[in-house]
Amino acid sequence: MRGSISTRLIVLITLCTAVIVGGGMLLDYRVSRAEILERLDLESNERVKAVVVDIENWLSGVEAATGFLGQILSQREYSEEGLKQMLRDLVQGNEEIYGAAIALSPNQAESGEGFAPYFFHSDTGIAYANLASREADYQQQPWFRAPIETAKPVWSEPYFDNGGGEALMTTYSVPVYRIDEEGQRFLYAVVTADVLVEDLHRVLQQLHLGEHSNGLLLSTEGMLLSSRQAPEALRHYSEIAIAPENLKPWRDLLDHVRGGQAISREVECPEIEGQCTLRMGTLQSNGWPIGIVYSQNEVLEPLYNYQIKTVIISVCTILGMALVVSLVTHSITRPLSYLSAASANIARGNMDSPLPPAKGNDEIATLVRSFESMSKDLKTYIADLESVTASRSRLEGELAAAREIQMSMLPGAGEARLQQPPVDLWARVEPAKTVGGDLYTYSLNDNHLLLAVGDVSDKGVPAALFMARAISLIQQLSSLSVAPNEAMTWLNNSLERDNPSCMFVTLFLGVLNTTTGELRFATAGHTAPSLLRNNEVTVIDQDTGPALGLIPDQDYPDNLLTLCPADRLAIYTDGIDEAFNSAGEMFGVERFNKQLQNTGALDLAAAGAALFQAVASHAQEQPQSDDITLLLLEPSAGKHGSQRQSFDLAPGLTRRVQSWLEPVLNNWSVPDDAVMEMLLIAEELVTNVQKYGELQAKHEIAVTLRLDGQTLALQVRDPGVAFNPLAQAERADLGADIESAEIGGLGVHLITGLSNRQHYAREGEYNVLTIEKDLPVWT
């Protein structure tokens, strides 16, 4: 299973094993490589030394035999036949010498051509050649001239011996001097010994380190005496496969070697790809550079083969170990897999899912037993939790029902709005728990508005029950015509009875006269209301009595407050000003009044919601600790409306105009006395137009009635003769007899007495007379 413990164990152990084995292989490779390289270095050095020693011994032997022959000739006289015999014996007795010659100085030979016998090894035995022949012409050969010029033994550069051995060879030449009778040294002869280049090449091939390795032997002047490729023999090293840019490094290298240094250098392999090692030294006998070239890859091939075998064995070992780890891991973790499947079933609610058997006393068996015990405990716990949850659900359901019942006892079920001119009222309660002890109520009968805001001590169900009892009693007051202070005494006595728990309620109880704006109220230990007037908020001074329900027969002072247009009264419980935040700071009356001032331009509902939000923002994450109730009250802004009607001047004009005006005024809730006064004003106006306007029955007048807040305006527009009754009409003296009064004189007094403002204008051919009347504030 992907991601399981067994899979991770197998992967981790296998990876760790691979890392350990790989690290060991790498370390073994490094160590083995260093050892093999060191061993090869020693072997190559020993092999080069052995070959060099063989060649050195060989050439030393040749030099010794030749030098010994020269010493004999410098001291004794021999006939030419004796020289030949001695020379033949020398060649025949030394296998290392291919051929030898005794070349007399031309003035020491009996013949004018000179004397230079030469014996050498051939396929048929010891062969003879006369180097004094014209073809051989030994006196012009470098091997004869060089020792004479240097007066010391020398090895010649390789050459092909024409007329002599007829082979590639190099010659060791020794000058022989004698002393004459006068004590002067003179050249007697040059004795030589030849070594075949082929023999040198055969010895060099003993230097072998790999398939493409080979020995190198160069002459003093750089002629290649032995190489891997036969055609390269007797060619200068600069003529073989050496790039022009590498000639100088090779020249420097050979200069160092000729100077006696042993050189080891990395070069590109001439026949295969890769790097080769070049080791070179010099022969002590003749100073010829000698060395070996071998490929590192070929030398390290045994190491590579060893590493491949090691890798194959390691991979097989890791795979075998992974298989064993897999089997062992699956065997150990199989109970865990079963336990995981069982836990998944239990998580899905199948508490009876079987568990794997617990065998032994290891950690897994202990875990299985613990899981089995936990499963049983969990099963019991879930059963208990289901029972508790069911009980809690029933309790929550009952509390929800209680909340609905409690809210239903409040107008608007917890949030109410009364917009009935001249009253605009908004109220809301938010219990701290499912049910609470705060209350508000109101009722409007005729021109009296009963309103109450209360706060029961404590919270929860006991407070809710006491609140239900209190609001039931308060709502009974709506049908009684008693002063608030007297009603408060009655409420106190009623709540005090059968109150063994000594619960109490603070209450604001008031009655507003919607005609006069007078608010009479009494308080029982309740928070004083705040009044917003002219954009300033003040706390209402009040005389208060004790809370209701504690002590019977208490007196409560009577308070009076007259509300003006645009006033806003806020009545609330202490859940607002005593709301705490996480820092322990109360919301406070001052902050509440500031918010009340800031929301003065808002509608009552919007202002109330903003005040609740301000309290919540202040409390932040702090849970609500008390019930919150707020009631806002203000005079309504009044109605606005306009109606216009045209009437002809036919008989019955007054009746028709009043029949049209009266329902409009009643629909606008204009007080009855104001309606009556406006009907009288209208009668006076249209009667005067009909009588004195010099108009006929077909002419029409326009009557407009407009309500703008608390101002009622009546306008009559007629096409009669221009006449301003306000300025031109004769006014009768007030108090004089009716018979003596001027026509129309009393009418002007009636209009100005029943209205507040009058205005006349002549607009074209029309008289326009407007009468305005201010309605009572709480209309």
UniProtKB/TrEMBL annotation:
Keywords: Hydrolase, Kinase, Membrane, Phosphoprotein, Transferase, Transmembrane, Transmembrane helix. Coiled coil: none annotated. Residues 330-383 form the HAMP domain. GO terms for cellular component: membrane. PROSITE patterns: HAMP (PS50885). It holds the Pfam family SpoIIE. It is found in: Membrane. InterPro entries: Bact_Sigma-Reg (IPR052016), HAMP_dom (IPR003660), HATPase_C_sf (IPR036890), HATPase_dom (IPR003594), PPM-type-like_dom_sf (IPR036457), PPM-type_phosphatase-like_dom (IPR001932). The keyword Ubl conjugation does not apply. The chain crosses the membrane at residues 311-329. GO terms for molecular function: kinase activity; phosphatase activity. GO terms for biological process: signal transduction. Its main location: membrane. The keyword Glycosyltransferase does not apply. This is HAMP domain-containing protein. It comes from Halioglobus japonicus.
